[in-house]
């Protein structure tokens, strides 16, 4: 029964992370549409977390009000760091690197998150390397396969593959504004920002694993994280963007983007990620990041009239295979940890104890017999030596 429960948890975690990447792919597409419409990305991030906080704070207050433990300074610090690394600062650094470099390079750097998370988690002893075990080899191999598949997906195109033709492009609906990406050619700074943002995202997952151990309320913890992210993101955007026209929201793609990204992306999916990290650890959650490329490519081909290539197909197959390998290795590792100690391992000790106990019992019985015989002999001797009157 316990084994079936663990298998069910593993399947549930896998399905949840796939759903997360599907939702995030929609957010990426809407980010692209909002940016094309001329919306400042820092303002977009600030609004995203403001909408997310407005949604998740009351939800968490009512859903977990009876089982929520006392909030400590340690948990508050964890939430602040998560709001900083995985929220305002992490996302703004990645968006800034996107402006300074290119979309292809930024996508390639994001795919390094599983490897960075694995290394940091092993160093902090949150993940067991276990290279001498088959499960450990599967985790390492699967992580490398995912990174390799994502790189293949990003850098190799090959011939065009026509699976479907929709001739539908949402980019034509939004008003185009000139891009300012070419104004800054500081490629080195963009590379550094991209690497730092990946490290921050990995730390976000790892801190959530630490927080889940002491504060097992994902909704309440996510509410704190999104609240801090909204404060930090708003302050950052106000400092960097003084054009108040950028802060105006109408009934257009901008409002739809921040509402969807905030309520669904930050308010709901952050809770799901926190639950999966608590169940399976930060490495398991990070391995699904390259899956985002596949979903973005599929959605982009449907609604943005983007092309699919052979490299996308080969890289996608490798990414999916990597997910199966890591999931298998993680399930084997958890099964080994939760498996009760076999009786064979303690049978020899038990037999020795039983033999020792039997010897002690036999010795005690023999001593009692000897005492009884000696006592009986004394009685006989006394009876014989008494003279008759």
Automatic annotation (TrEMBL):
SUPFAM superfamilies: Multidrug resistance efflux transporter EmrE
Subcellular location: Membrane
Domain EamA: start-end pairs: 14-152, 189-327
Superkingdom assignment: Eukaryota
GO molecular function: transmembrane transporter activity
Coiled-coil region(s): none
Xref: Pfam families: EamA (PF00892)
InterPro entries: EamA_dom (IPR000620), EmrE-like (IPR037185), WAT1-related (IPR030184)
Family in the record: Belongs to the drug/metabolite transporter (DMT) superfamily. Plant drug/metabolite exporter (P-DME) (TC 2.A.7.4) family.
Identification of the protein by name: WAT1-related protein
């Amino acid at each position: 029964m316990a084994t079936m429960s663990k298998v069910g948890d593993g399947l549930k975690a896998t399905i949840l992370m796939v759903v997360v990447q599907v939702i995030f792919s929609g957010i990426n597409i809407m980010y692209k549409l909002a940016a094309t419409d001329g919306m400042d990305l820092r303002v977009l991030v600030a609004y995203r977390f403001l909408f997310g906080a407005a949604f998740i704070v009351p939800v968490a207050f009512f859903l977990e009000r009876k089982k929520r433990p006392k909030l400590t300074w340690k948990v508050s610090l964890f939430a602040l760091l998560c709001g900083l690394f995985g929220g305002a600062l992490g996302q703004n650094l990645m968006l800034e690197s996107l402006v300074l470099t290119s979309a292809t390079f930024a996508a390639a750097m994001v795919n390094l998150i599983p490897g960075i998370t694995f290394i940091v988690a092993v160093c902090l002893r949150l993940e067991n390397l276990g290279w001498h075990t088959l499960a450990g080899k599967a985790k390492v191999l699967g992580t490398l396969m995912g990174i390799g598949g994502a790189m293949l997906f990003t850098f190799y195109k090959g011939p065009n593959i026509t699976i479907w033709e929709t001739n539908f492009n949402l980019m034509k609906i939004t008003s185009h504004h000139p891009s300012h990406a070419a104004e800054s050619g500081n490629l080195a700074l963009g590379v550094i920002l991209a690497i730092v943002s990946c490290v921050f995202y990995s730390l976000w997952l790892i801190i959530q694993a630490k927080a889940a151990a002491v504060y097992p309320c994902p909704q309440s913890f996510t509410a704190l994280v999104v609240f801090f992210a909204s404060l930090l993101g708003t302050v950052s955007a106000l400092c960097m963007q003084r054009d108040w026209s950028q802060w105006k929201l109408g009934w257009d793609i901008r409002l739809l983007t921040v509402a969807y990204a905030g309520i669904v992306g930050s308010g709901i999916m952050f809770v799901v990620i926190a639950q999966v990290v608590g169940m399976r650890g930060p490495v398991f959650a990070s391995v699904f990041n390259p899956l985002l490329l596949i979903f973005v490519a599929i959605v982009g081909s449907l609604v943005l009239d983007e092309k699919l290539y052979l490299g996308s197909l080969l890289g996608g197959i490798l990414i999916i295979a990597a997910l199966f390998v890591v999931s298998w290795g993680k399930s084997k590792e958890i099964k080994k940890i939760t498996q009760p100690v076999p009786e064979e391992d303690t049978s020899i000790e038990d037999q020795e104890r039983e033999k020792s106990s039997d010897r002690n019992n036999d010795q005690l019985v023999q001593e009692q017999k000897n005492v009884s015989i000696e006592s009986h002999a004394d009685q006989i001797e006394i009876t014989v030596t008494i003279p008759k009157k």
